[in-house]
């Protein structure tokens, strides 16, 4: 069971121990449900590593979260910069042929003709469509990454079992 980052604590919000959190999820209202328990990535020394959510609400620059274990601004300050995590099993169940973006990291990217492009190092979750950052297997260092839009016009198949993404890139995409 793998833990997935669903938010990053930006700073305290107010004086009662609330946190302003940047969500790393497409559905923060579902993810930040009261009663849910979150693990803290790299928790502050002497502070709880598991936090129980009491209340949540959208804020202009993120989500405002109140946890049972944090009662004041000093406690909240100590969590700034920490990640909030849930196990993969606690996340929304996906339909067939759906996957989380984090599932793509490490997959081999191949052209539909079979030539290997490299492996997905990370995914940039951009409005409109994500972008795969693919490290070339044959060239390390400067210029060794390619950015490939994760678009149905380019990505023809994602096979999580085989750990392969097949693409049919337009002319010139891989030359950049």
Query: Strand count, sense and closure of the main sheet?
Result: 6 strands, antiparallel, barrel
The helix count comes to 2
Ends distance: 38 Å
Which outline best applies? Answer: elongated
CATH overall fold name of the largest domain: Elongation Factor Tu (Ef-tu), domain 3
- Which whole number gives the mean pLDDT? 90
Please describe what this structure looks like.
Strand 1 and strand 2 (18-23) form a beta hairpin. This protein folds into 2 domains: 3-90, Elongation Factor Tu (Ef-tu), domain 3; 101-175, Roll (SH3 type barrels), CATH 2.30.30.240. The protein has 176 residues and is mostly beta strands. The chain is built from 2 helices and 12 strands; from the N terminus they run E-E-H-E-E-E-H-E-E-E-E-E-E-E. Helix content is 6%, strand content 43%. Strands 1-2-5-4-3-6 form a 6-stranded antiparallel barrel. The model has no long low-confidence stretch (mean pLDDT 90).
């Amino acid at each position: 069971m793998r833990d997935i980052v669903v938010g990053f604590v930006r700073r305290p919000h107010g004086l009662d121990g609330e946190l302003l959190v940047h969500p790393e999820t497409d559905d923060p209202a579902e993810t930040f449900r009261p009663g849910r328990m979150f693990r803290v990535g790299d928790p502050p020394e002497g502070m709880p590593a598991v936090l129980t959510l009491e209340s949540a609400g959208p804020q202009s620059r993120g989500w405002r979260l109140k946890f049972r274990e944090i009662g004041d601004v000093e406690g909240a300050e100590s969590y700034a910069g920490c990640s909030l995590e849930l196990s993969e099993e606690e996340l929304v169940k996906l339909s067939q042929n759906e996957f989380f973006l984090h599932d793509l990291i490490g997959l081999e990217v191949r052209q539909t003709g079979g030539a290997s492009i490299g492996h997905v190092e990370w995914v940039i979750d951009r409005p409109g469509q994500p972008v795969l950052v693919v490290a070339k297997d044959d060239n390390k260092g400067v210029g060794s990454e390619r950015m490939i839009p994760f678009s149905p016009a380019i990505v023809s198949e994602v096979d999580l079992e085989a750990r392969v993404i097949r693409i049919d890139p337009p002319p010139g995409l891989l030359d950049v």
